[in-house]
Amino acid sequence: MIDIAYQVSAGVDGLQIAKLAVHGPRGVFELVLVIGWIEQGDLERPERPTVGGVGLIVEHALRIHVLIGLRDQHIPVVIIDSALAGQAGKDYVSFIATDNHKGGQIAGQKLADLLGGKGKVVLLRYGEGSASTLEREAGFLDIMNKNPGIQILVQNRYAGPTIGDAKDTAMQMSDDLQAADGIFASNESACAGMLLALRQLGLAGKVKFVGFDTDTMLIGALKTGQIQGLVAQNPSKMAYLGVEQAINALKGQPVTEKMDSGCALITPENLTDPAMQEYLEVK
Fold it and tell me: Which residue segments constitute the domains of the chain, with CATH numbers given?
């Protein structure tokens, strides 16, 4: 999302932008986009900026003391994609993301429909502490729990941060996957790892599989019947709204505290529909 926001910002006349590599719990990520007029300061330490007229667009969670420090220096922060500790309108000016709980419900309803409301289901979570995927998983389980004919075989296994980790986790669940009628994986890497495991186990296309997020491999699997549905986000809209709200904050114009950038269920039947194409941009 940050890369798309960077591209959007680059098209705005008079705007200076910079991407920062910020240390996080899983390594170093380019997560922060600075826009505005940078006067001075150490860009490698966004928790101590000495800047003027700058907005920050953040894709993943900053530590709460960093957020408070930015707020106290009157630096507007816009959060996109993943929820941040704190409160929109108080600790940061705006939060733009997919309604992940709703997206999880959409995935759950699709899988329940595919199973006719009965069968054995495996949930492959992404990672502990990931707010967006936790919300998706909660929404999915809401629907599963409304279907008394559905038995959840696994719901507390975590894929890990990479496709390789996700495949390894899925392979460790081979007995459960053999017994399952349906599977849900809650993000792109978890979906991809699960798909690779299903292929290795000879189960791809034999068990109903609904995922969250899209990429070239997952869309290919959708086309061949190895995946029956993907809940897709709208990263371009999310990034555009993030830049829009950051610029509004810099100009002292009204800012919307919370915005839903939308999601859609992509299936083999609607894959080529014009309305679905904005959700299918390959990242």
Answer: 2-98+234-261 (3.40.50), 100-233 (3.40.50.2300)
